[in-house]
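Technical annex B. To support the medicinal chemistry partners, we prepared a structural model of the target in complex with zinc ion, based solely on the information shown next.
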Amino acid sequence: MSAYVIGYEVYCDGPTGQDDCPESAAVRASVASRTARQVRADGREQGWTARHGGGRLLDLCPSCTAERQDGAQPSPPPA
Ligand SMILES: [Zn+2]
């Protein structure tokens, strides 16, 4: 038996990026999504956003995105 990576999980970084998400949310990735980019694309369809904060990318679930009223914008859909 050989192990293999079955996918990539994206978790919400919380409304501030410092605290855990109150909902402990994670993107529900589709079976076909194996990379961070693919999973984030799934997340966008579910209302997730990604923004830069503190020199890294913060993933925000829909509820945390709504909580941040400071200009977080959904990423544009893929062409
Ligand atoms: Zn969240």
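Notes passed to the chemistry partners:
The longest helix spans residues 36-45.
Strands lie at 49-53, 56-60.
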